[in-house]
Automatic annotation (TrEMBL):
Domain annotation Structure-specific endonuclease subunit SLX1 C-terminal: ranges: 96-156
Family annotation (InterPro entries): SLX1_C (IPR048749), SLX1_endonuclease (IPR050381), Znf_RING/FYVE/PHD (IPR013083)
Single GO cellular component term: Slx1-Slx4 complex
Protein's recorded name: SLX1 endonuclease
Source organism (scientific name): Pycnonotus jocosus (Red-whiskered bulbul)
Molecular-function GO terms, alphabetical: 5'-flap endonuclease activity; crossover junction DNA endonuclease activity
GO biological process terms on file: double-strand break repair via homologous recombination
Hydrolase recorded as keyword: yes
Claim: NAD is one of the keywords in the record: no
UniProtKB keywords: Endonuclease, Hydrolase, Nuclease
Gene: Slx1b
Top-level lineage group: Eukaryota
Length: 183
């Protein structure tokens, strides 16, 4: 991604890379190019995050895809990987909420505290990919338990224990949407 961003004319990922305008600053050109790269394969379906250390003074010419989360600030330092909520053994959960099978495969869990949805990653991926049967990687979908919109990347981060405290959901009515999503 970085190489394609730095060499847009040499990369085969952009079919028609934009031309740098006369007197356009390199950073302005890079910011104009960024959303186009995020929408190009192979990055168009990856759960990427844009973390702005200093947000640009104006909005991007083209918004990033809705599943790409935009954040501001340096963020919290990651010292150690903590054990995720989905990796703990909980009583009362016997198997996948979608297929009902009890397997040794760890379950993905909805990050909302009052939702008890737990499902095998392949089962949840099939549900999320139902509207897009030709795709391999889901972007997100509605939680089968609480019907909140969940991003696939956030579920995986939560499962791996990489969720930062501000990513945790505190109330049932909270819905975390990417900042580029329409409201």
């Amino acid at each position: 991604f970085e190489w394609a961003w730095q060499h847009p004319n040499s990369s085969h990922r952009l079919l028609t890379p934009p031309l740098r305008q006369p007197r356009e600053q390199p950073i302005s050109f890079a910011l104009r190019l960024l959303p186009r790269l995020l929408r190009a394969p192979p990055w168009s379906r990856l759960p990427l995050r844009i973390r702005w250390l200093r947000p640009p003074g104006h909005a991007l010419e083209l918004a990033p895809p809705p599943h790409v989360v935009e954040e501001k600030g340096a963020g919290l330092p990651r010292l150690k990987r903590k054990k995720g909520r989905s990796q703990r053994v909980e009583e009362g959960v016997r198997g996948c909420g979608l297929c009902g099978k009890v397997e040794t495969t760890p379950l993905l869990r909805c990050p909302r505290p009052l939702c008890s949805m737990a499902a095998h990653p392949p089962c949840l991926a099939r549900l999320f990919l139902a509207p897009e049967p030709r795709e391999l990687l889901p972007l997100g979908g509605a939680c089968p338990g609480c019907h909140a919109h969940l991003l696939w990347g956030d579920l995986i981060r939560h499962f791996l224990g990489e969720a930062e405290p501000e990513e945790e959901w505190t109330e049932l009515d909270d819905v975390i949407m990417p900042s580029s999503a329409p409201t």
